[in-house]
Amino acid sequence: MKPQIKIILSNFFFEYETPRQVLVRNKKVAVACRIIQMGVLGYIIGWVFMYEKGYHAIDTAIGSVFTKMKGVSLTNISGEERIWDAADFVFPEQGASSFVVMTNYIATVGQQQDKCPENQSFYTLLFPYGIMSLSGQMTGRCISNTSTCEIYSWCPVEDDRQIPDPAILLTSENYTLFIKNSITFPHFNVVRSNLVESVNQSYINTCLYHPKTDPLCPIFRLGDIVELSGFSFSEIARLGGAIGLLIDWDCNLDLSIRHCEPKYEFYGLYGTGRNDKEKPSLGYNFRYAKYYVEKGVEKRTLMKVFGVRIDIIVNGRAGKFDIIPTLTAIGSGVGIFGVATVVCDLLLLHFVTKKDFYKNMKFKHTEIPEEVKTQDGSRDT
């Protein structure tokens, strides 16, 4: 065992290999070599340079989004008419990139802090320091005519067992959303807005986004946003849901800056989709209260709001010619060309019928003769 290890180490440290060029006239191997080389060349030109643009230096965008919702709805509940505008149905109202548009609600009017029967649909929880109802503090009394416990809470207690169907604000599908998006590519010192050169004031006054006829219009109909995301508006309006609106910038700065334009994409993130009916806890809702004082008593109107949550996401990527990534891509491609040589050598040395002949032609073992001194002092080899 030791002599073998010694031989291996000796060969490793004291032998040197140098390439030897051998011209082989074998049609099968030659054709295989050219096919592999053409495949590598196609990969470099088609994928690396044309599709992935490997000659580009890349920068990602920093962006901001401003939104403005417009629309009016008229409701008539129990003979009481009311007008709803953007100040009533948009939360929050500052024009952020993430907001909720109310499409349905349950209102509990005239609540005040008092003792009242608990709602039968609520459960009680056992805490270390006593029993707590989900809607208030239990007093320890039972109410016989309702078969529930008495609680100290905001009374009357909200009853949300019956969700309005169809949605109260079903006309909200005609609300319009205006989006103003600005981005910058700091590495290239480029600033762009979704209000590109072809989007002027006269165009904005008349346009409405359509993926084919008006793909650059920054005004969107709420019903279209929901439908393009894959949801049914009548379903999502009743229980609520979440939608992602992606503004995608993919800019080639080797071309005119006018070609750097946004693309809008819509994704249904969560809601009452057509295939979601068996899922638990569908929809999106939250509560808020409007407080007021009546005859010296603090009261409130509790609103359970169902709505469409819209999250606007900006994704920006720009590329421009740069010599460093270009040379890197070329160097990588040249290295990949070596695959053809490796494959063809395997074929020659292990699979063709004259493999032993090719091995003798491929490899030549030589030793440098050592010099020996003769008697007259001259050197002989």
TrEMBL record:
Any one cellular-component term (Gene Ontology): postsynapse
One of the GO biological process terms: calcium ion transmembrane transport
Keyword set includes Ion transport: yes
UniProt KW keywords: ATP-binding, Cell membrane, Disulfide bond, Glycoprotein, Ion channel, Ion transport, Ligand-gated ion channel, Membrane, Nucleotide-binding, Receptor, Transmembrane, Transmembrane helix, Transport
Gene3D superfamilies in UniProt: atp-gated p2x4 ion channel (1.10.287.940), atp-gated p2x4 ion channel domain (2.60.490.10)
Disulfide bonding pattern of the chain: C116-C155, C207-C217, C251-C260
Transmembrane segments: 29-50, 330-352
Entry's localization field: Cell membrane; Membrane
Domain of life per record: Eukaryota
Claim: Cell division is one of the keywords in the record: no
Known catalytic reactions: Ca(2+)(in) = Ca(2+)(out)
PROSITE patterns the record matches: P2X_RECEPTOR
GO MF annotation terms: ATP binding; extracellularly ATP-gated monoatomic cation channel activity; purinergic nucleotide receptor activity
A Pfam family it matches: P2X_receptor
Annotated binding of ATP, by residue: K68, M69, K70, T176, N285, F286, R287, K304
Glycosylated residue positions: N174
Topological type in the membrane: Multi-pass membrane protein
Family listed: Belongs to the P2X receptor family.
Role of this protein: Receptor for ATP that acts as a ligand-gated ion channel.
Protein name: P2X purinoceptor
